[in-house]
Amino acid sequence: MTSRPGEPSSSPMASSPPPPPSSSLSPPQIPMKLHEINRLKLLNSLREHLSLSSRPHQGFVFLQGGEEQTRHCTDHTELFRQESYFAYLFGVREPGFYGAIDVATGDSILFAPRLSEDYAVWLGEIKPLSFFKERYMVTFVFYTDEIPKVLHDRFQGSGRPLLFLLHGLNTDSNKFSKPADFEVLTSILFSCPELSVEGIEKFKTDMSILHPIITECRVLKSDMELALIQFANDISSEAHVEVMRKTRVGMKEYQLESMFLHHTYMYGGCRHCSYTCICATGDHGSVLHYGHAAAPNDRTLEDGDMALLDMGAEYHFYGSDITCSFPVNGKFTSDQCLVYNAVVGAHDAVISSIRPGVSWVDMHKLAEKFILESLKKGGILFGEVDDMMVERLGAVFMPHGLGHFLGIDTHDPGGYLKGAKRPLESGLSALRTSRELQEGMVITVEPGCYFIDALLNPAMQSSNTSKFLNCEEIVRFKGFGGVRIESDVHITANGCVNMTKVPRETWEIEAVMAGQSWPLKNEQPCSENGVEG
Amino acid sequence: MTSRPGEPSSSPMASSPPPPPSSSLSPPQIPMKLHEINRLKLLNSLREHLSLSSRPHQGFVFLQGGEEQTRHCTDHTELFRQESYFAYLFGVREPGFYGAIDVATGDSILFAPRLSEDYAVWLGEIKPLSFFKERYMVTFVFYTDEIPKVLHDRFQGSGRPLLFLLHGLNTDSNKFSKPADFEVLTSILFSCPELSVEGIEKFKTDMSILHPIITECRVLKSDMELALIQFANDISSEAHVEVMRKTRVGMKEYQLESMFLHHTYMYGGCRHCSYTCICATGDHGSVLHYGHAAAPNDRTLEDGDMALLDMGAEYHFYGSDITCSFPVNGKFTSDQCLVYNAVVGAHDAVISSIRPGVSWVDMHKLAEKFILESLKKGGILFGEVDDMMVERLGAVFMPHGLGHFLGIDTHDPGGYLKGAKRPLESGLSALRTSRELQEGMVITVEPGCYFIDALLNPAMQSSNTSKFLNCEEIVRFKGFGGVRIESDVHITANGCVNMTKVPRETWEIEAVMAGQSWPLKNEQPCSENGVEG
Fold first, then answer.
1. Residues annotated as region Disordered (chains A, B) (predicted)?
2. Which pTM does this prediction carry?
3. A292, A508, B22, B482: least surrounded by Cβ within 10 Å?
4. Cβ pair B517:A18 closer than 8 A
5. Measured between CB atoms, does B411 come within 8 Å of chain A?
């Protein structure tokens, strides 16, 4: 043993036990069965689609997983996160995989990269194929350089094997998903003289059928998917409360981000977030996607600021997306109350109205209307709310959509079915979906009310809208920023479940910020959430 | 004000003040002057080079900054970090910029992207060009769509303006840096009818001169660069100590990562790390680049494990790279001591020998020799160390190079000058530089000793090396993992300065893990760091 010179430390720290964990949660087991269920769901939908057009149940769903990326010309490796469709079907955390599902037999096949001997020294044990077969619960595992041969050998139809490739529009990014890369496969074939190069040309490919079907599978969540989204919500809710409790005037915005990231990773095992944290205070609250590299959460919190914190952790690919707004000094002013209660009221009204069959566009309008009514009651707006709705005044205060699907992507795909048109009206055009709600969907409810010069100034100058605006009052809100309240809800047969568990009423927030535990022990009904406070 | 029902909380938490900050550090001001100095240094080197070949001091250094990336087809934006050469010259944190330096006048010119009106609502205030001029201390700022016109107008030579573009090999990644993208510029020209499309074809380009010159500028650090690297070292050293102190048997490896990330961001404002944290315990310590997505720091710490934590924060692009190794239960066993002291002795021997003119290959061999001698003293090896050196036995226990340049990249470029050959011998071939040390270099000193089955098994079977190995002793180290000790040193006129300030002696580590403050108050010399412990 090593010598330890000097007397034993008499510091009070020395013998004190480690502090108790600051969380009641711990990361759940990763349920790989979930992906088997996802594959089965896709297989059933695809077979049904093929039957409808009297086509044989033959061919392979064929996807390429993500590749690890380095930063520009350097060897700096970015932390890899799997491509979302591949994650949905296979749950594979490693880069460089391909995957197939045999439409005829239902067999699932993973193709793993063949790693060099060096890998064992630098990156870790080279796992046998059986390891991946067991971990990912697939029927077979081969190496990626065996893809053409395996698919040819296993194809049960006549002629060239048919590959269903992923190609379709993401309606949030306006980008197309990239079908599995055949150039790579061709180069593999060239390096395998025992396989004929013509092999690859002997595949038939279909680029239209798979994308809408798998996307629709992703829209409706299974119980196992819901459980992961619930865990991501639980740990993120807890982290939001932790941040709220520790926020102090004089801190930097990024310190709130750091506390959130630490809590969700330390106690939830969440290495990734669903998106870059938005930690906006003061005027920054009016920047909807604040927090990126050009606006990096670096302001100092000032007394009297509102904070708008939009942060959500991801666990085994499934995410959460939660926004809390609160005064950084722990006490709402009457103006803050006015705006906050307008938004929380809209949030609650929407959640009370959500059920299968309801149109998301109607929910958006419901939120807008509640906010406009509240601002009118608060003396900020004049006139008839119905007239304001006609002039789309709501979009001045809430220029974003009410919410979006949530799952493996924060903006989960499927918001617009093929051929569906985006609404054209101001505000509604920003909606990430215009669909009717269905049981099994998970969607964010995130009304907001912001004071954005770039929108308020034109509205004050337009004859259509200026008549509604009480400019003398509005001027007081210059620099206010904004309030957003965002929860993740799961649509059930009769309504919805709010998966997000954070203080929402102003008095709950004030109690938690004053040090009370959450959930509050003596929970009391809100006596009155009116703007008079 | 809102109502707050119920009596005031009587929880002991309620009125307790926030805990005191856990750091003596705070983020320093960002010194933009640093980049002005970098530009001047490049300009001087480039002009000198041109003079030597009797070429005129004309044309523009022309670089493209990094672009923000989204994940596959989604709208998930990855947190942007500037391309390193662009960061070196301009220090710009926003994506989408180009930059030029006029070789004739020394003027520096930034080109900012012209942002859409939507940007103000979603991403933040659209800054005027004067904002960037002031922030980045450049001579002029224009929009990117003005690049061709500006460069043509300002060119002082005759004929077509010459652009010095960045094109050269990164000897760590074996990738070439990407010269500024002319396709983008061409498409800009097409969209600007007032500029002739031929404009772009009227540039001359040079792809060979710039890269080696700017790379060599980066190799030798200025005082302002050293100060940033020192801060990254200070906050990371403090975070390592924090992690060491809080490590407990039963934790997960990623919890150590989480604590490190939190400390460096919360108290150091470091949003980025220099590289993905390597938090290896037990056998994982023998995986040199553990911690990536396929080996994601997810093991549970067991009593008797060594931890090998390789983690470094980055501040305003400049990084740190620090490894600490310690027993997770806070007490070294005699075997752990043997291996640890072999490595710390090698580390100290190298640092004592470093000075300008010393060959890095010799430093590597010095470390190897110390480790082999220690393993021999500990009864793990037999025979003459000089014979072991001839057979390259050191590479079995330390298969990586002794260290690498450190700066804006963790593996900072310039390790091999053009035409320099990598050593071919086992172990030495992994060196990221074979250069002689010079004043102003910053390099990591990171000897290690690992028990890697993939290397030990062949060594035990080879007649050249098996004679040195005491297999009966070595078998005890199966599953031991490894020890690495890594500090960042700055080469001075007469020696070097160790910028890393963490406990290194076994007794220091044990004292800190037992709760003593760091630096130790009653610092004592190590009575004897011999392997007998």
1. 1-30
2. 0.94
3. B22
4. no
5. yes
